[in-house]
Amino acid sequence: MVKISDSLFLIPGQDEMIPDAHVYLLGHADSQDYSLVDAGLVGKGAYKIGALKEAGVRLTDIKRVIMTHTHLDHIGCLRELMNEMPSLELWVHAAEAEALEQGDERTFTGWIRSSRCARCSMA
Fold first, then answer.
1. Coil, helix or strand for 25?
2. What residues does each domain of the chain span?
3. Which of 6, 8, 10, 55 is the most exposed place for a label (fewest CB within 10 A)?
4. How far from each other are the two terminal CA atoms of the chain, in whole angstroms?
5. β-bridge partners, 62
6. Pairing assessment for the beta strands 23-26 and 34-37 based on DSSP bridges
7. Residue 112's closest CA among 84, 61, 75, 87?
8. Cβ proximity of 90 and 78 under 8 Å
């Protein structure tokens, strides 16, 4: 994990046949209230979680994942992260939230049906 500033860290993506999005960790260690920005590609959850643990971040201090959008390389390993952090909230733009909540098969992550999905109020 790369420190960008005192409250911003980068977990670089691991590209293979398709790109894996970078994941950002926002927050101060003493706040016990971190946010992740994006999740990454399917199968990369263990790598992302390992990077967080190696940096000394307690998974219980991560409260939410803020999705920039729901493309495969950004949301693919979300299930892996949510399995490791069951109280994790999912923040996603309202334009994409309904399809995720309803399990729309046209979305890659139609399997997310959770009351933990919080719609962003920004358009």
1. strand
2. 2-92
3. 6
4. 31
5. 34
6. antiparallel
7. 75
8. yes
Q: Are 94 and 87 in contact (CB under 8 A)?
A: no
User: Predicted confidence band at 104 (pLDDT cuts at 50, 70, 90)?
Assistant: low
Contacts of 99 (CB under 8 A, 6+ apart): 70, 106, 107, 110
pLDDT tens profile 42-91: 899 999 999 999 999 999 999 999 999 888 888 889 989 999 999 999 99
Q: Write out the CATH class of domain 2-92.
A: alpha beta
Q: Tell me what pLDDT residue 96 has.
A: 81
pLDDT at position 115, please? Answer: 43
49 touches 74 (CB < 8 A) = no
Which one, of 63, 117, 72, lies nearest residue 93 by Cα? 117
Q: How far apart are CA 66 and CA 14, in angstroms?
A: 20
The two most distant CA atoms of the chain are separated, in Å, by: 41
Among candidate residues 13, 58, 11, the one with its CA nearest the CA of residue 32: 58
SS3 63: strand
